[in-house]
Amino acid sequence: MNIDTIETWLTWAIGGLLFVSALLSLIRITLGPSVLDRVVATDVLVSIVVCALGAYAALTDAWTTLPLLISLSLVGFMGSVAVARFVARDRDIPFVAPAPDRLEEGGSPAPRHSLARRGPRRSHAARAHRAAPDHRPGRGGGHP
């Protein structure tokens, strides 16, 4: 076996693996049950394209693909960071069960239009401020 034969086999192996992984990623983009699955699969597909361009550049000594590699890498990174921030922002909001006085007779939450008649809801910060002792002199909340 000479070096050209090994290079040919490696080229076909790399191309085949990248093709199969791109095909699986496209299937996940098409069938993904959630938007997050599709976004992650798109990020993987961008990474596969970067790997394919890197393999092409290594095999052909084409240094002109370097700006394209850097640009695609930055696009993939920025997309991943944007999605991660979006998902983290949605998951930071904790689930708060409705108060018992806000439930209907069957135990389900009352419709929003019926809640509007009961007056404004106080925020957690307003309740905490109201419950906090007053530390100003003469108010009884501080030390003597």
UniProtKB/TrEMBL annotation:
Keyword annotations from UniProtKB, A to Z: Cell membrane, Membrane, Transmembrane, Transmembrane helix, Transport
Mode of membrane association: Multi-pass membrane protein
Residue ranges of the region described as Disordered: 98-144
InterPro entries named among the record's database cross-references: MrpF/PhaF-like (IPR007208)
Spans traversing the lipid bilayer: 6-27, 39-59, 65-88
Cross-referenced Pfam families: MrpF_PhaF
CC terms in the record's Gene Ontology section: plasma membrane
Main location (coarse class): membrane
Intracellular or extracellular location(s): Cell membrane
PANTHER family: NA(+)/H(+) ANTIPORTER SUBUNIT F1, NA(+)_H(+) ANTIPORTER SUBUNIT F
Family designation: Belongs to the CPA3 antiporters (TC 2.A.63) subunit F family.
Protein name, UniProt field: Sodium:proton antiporter
Species name: Ornithinimicrobium pratense
Lineage of the organism: Bacteria, Bacillati, Actinomycetota, Actinomycetes, Micrococcales
